Amino acid sequence: MKFNTKTIHGGQEHDKAYGAVMHPIYQTTTYAQTTPGGHKGFEYSRTHNPTRAALEKSFASLEQGKFGLAFGSGLAAIDAVMKLLKSGDEVISTNDLYGGTYRLFTKIYEDFGVKFHFIGMENADRIEDFVNENTKLIWVETPTNPMLNIIDIKMAAGIAKKHSILLGVDNTFATPYLQQPLTLGADIVMHSATKYLGGHSDVIMGALVVKDEELAERLYFIQNASGAICGPQDSFLMLRGIKTLHVRMQRHCENGKAIAHYLNNHPKIEKVYWPGFESHANHEIAKSQMSDFGGMISFVTKGNDYQQAIKIVENLKLFTLAESLGGVESLSGHPASMTHASIPKEEREKTGVVDSLIRLSIGIEDVDDLIEDLKQSIG
Ligand SMILES: *Cc1c(COP(=O)(O)O)cnc(C)c1O
Predict the structure, then answer these.
(1) Pocket flag, ligand 1, residue 204 (CB < 6 Å)
(2) What CATH code is assigned to 245-378?
(3) Kind of pairing between the strands at 166-170 and 90-94
(4) Which pTM was predicted?
């Protein structure tokens, strides 16, 4: 089955009771048993719920995995992965990781005795310098937020395999429409399904997909034991969102490309970060592991003026100034004063988050209207 069919049918079957075409919302906590243990595969909804189970099959199908798991948020999904580890274990991760992931690692798991190495991975062979006998997990995000760096998943997977380390990839920005980490050698793929998978800015959710049965068993155990699951209503909304993932992504990419080029030719813009430009440091890797370049763009203005950047995001009308990304509507963000405000200026500037950096999540509106909006706002 091709990807554009999988978004609609992958892992799905019609309702057995009445033939409902849309998967029913099983809003129930428990299931009748005829005799102790005599049930139809469902006992209690923390452990299993039919609506969530349908969604988990869809996740697995999209990422070419065998087992999918749905969680109450992206961070809950990463939290479940971290629970595979124990005190003394070490993790190698990217130095421009999603802020919430960085906070989870450093403010919670460091206290439990897990050691983290945050390194630049634009040259993925650097990862090997940080491997030792305690290394249990390599955690990669590509493209990264907000600098749109690209990390070579195949190379990271080669290092992970060689040393029997798990490789996890946060595939939130690319989505399985553009990039399928399990086919490139990753062991775990993770999503903030809140973003492109849901696609309508109305559900917070996380996903994990794996191929290995033993790893899946451990993660299902953690999912049930820790209990950070999502509810059946949200599972239904996510299944509905996923059905249009491919058409949305196609438009996100088309609009993204047009806007990246528009900004790149704008006299007031200093630099545009978008992996589709040949000048992007890892353009060749992006081209080889992604089928297109996505709808996320960051840029800085000439003169790098903080106040000017604030004005631009305030003056945008169609682009809503807001956290998050990946919805049908276009959003803007100013990392230095929003997502990265808590990081000292010198620290954030080291990774490129300068005062005038603006991040855009390009929606699926008419691209002419979006460009018109940028034109009136940037001036
Ligand atoms: C939003 C996001 C997360 C966290 O997901 P939540 O659903 O907000 O918990 C993790 N990684 C990336 C890349 C994200 O954009």
Answers:
(1) yes
(2) 3.90.1150.10
(3) unpaired
(4) 0.97
